[in-house]
């Protein structure tokens, strides 16, 4: 069951959705199935990552992604995909990375929950 988010948090996330690019869970799955090497970052908390994550993804929690992204992805033109539990935190992280000059950041709407619901592979 998805966690209940506070009204102001949802409003904040919805307010950035018009400023960022989003994709579907199926879009990311298709790229991975085609063998494309994509920069895919899980922005959830450490304990969430440890319970399971999307294969080929890297972990950069929302609390540190802005601090550490330049080391992992020095090219601000690189296509970077972000996901979280449901697509809210990744939307906020995408907006911040855009403010830092990253021009091709995409938040995966539906997040890890959507990935699991679609029956796609999970690594633990």
Number of domains: 1
- The rough form would be described as globular
Q: For this structure, what is the CATH class?
A: Alpha Beta
Find the CATH superfamily.
Answer: Rhodanese-like domain
Our count of helices gives: 6
What is the distance, rounded to the nearest whole angstrom, between the alpha carbons of the first and last residues?
20 Å
Largest sheet: 5 strands, parallel
Strand content: 15-25%
Which structural category do the helix and sheet elements fall into?
A: alpha/beta
Query: Can you count the beta strands?
Result: 5
**Could you tell me the mean pLDDT?**
94
Q: What's the alpha carbon Rg, rounded to whole Å?
A: 13 Å
What's this entry about, in short?
The protein has 124 residues and is α/β, with parallel strands linked by helices. The protein contains six helices and five strands.
Description:
- The chain is of the alpha/beta class.
- The protein has one domain (21-117): Oxidized Rhodanese, domain 1, CATH 3.40.250.
- Helix content is 42%, strand content 15%.
- It has six helices and five strands, in the order αβαβαβαβαβα.
- It has a five-stranded parallel β-sheet with strand order 1-5-4-2-3.
- Strand 4 (79-83), helix 5 (89-99) and strand 5 (104-108) form a beta-alpha-beta unit.
- Helix 1 crosses helix 5 (89-99).
- It is globular and about 30 Å long.
- GO terms for molecular function: thiosulfate-cyanide sulfurtransferase activity.
- It is an enzyme of class 2 (transferase).
- Keywords: Transferase.
- This is Thiosulfate sulfurtransferase GlpE.
């Amino acid at each position: 069951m998805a966690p209940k988010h506070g009204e102001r948090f949802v409003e904040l996330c919805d307010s950035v959705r018009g400023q960022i690019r989003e994709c579907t869970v199926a879009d990311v799955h298709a790229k991975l199935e085609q063998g494309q090497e994509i920069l895919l970052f899980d922005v959830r908390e450490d304990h969430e990552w440890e319970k399971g994550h999307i294969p080929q993804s890297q972990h950069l929690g929302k609390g540190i992604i802005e601090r550490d992204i330049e080391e992992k992805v020095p090219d601000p033109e690189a296509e970077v995909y972000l996901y979280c539990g449901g697509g809210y935190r990744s939307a906020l992280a995408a907006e911040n990375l855009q403010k830092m000059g990253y021009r091709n950041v995409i938040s995966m709407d539906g997040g890890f929950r959507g990935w699991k619901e679609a029956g796609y592979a999970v690594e633990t």
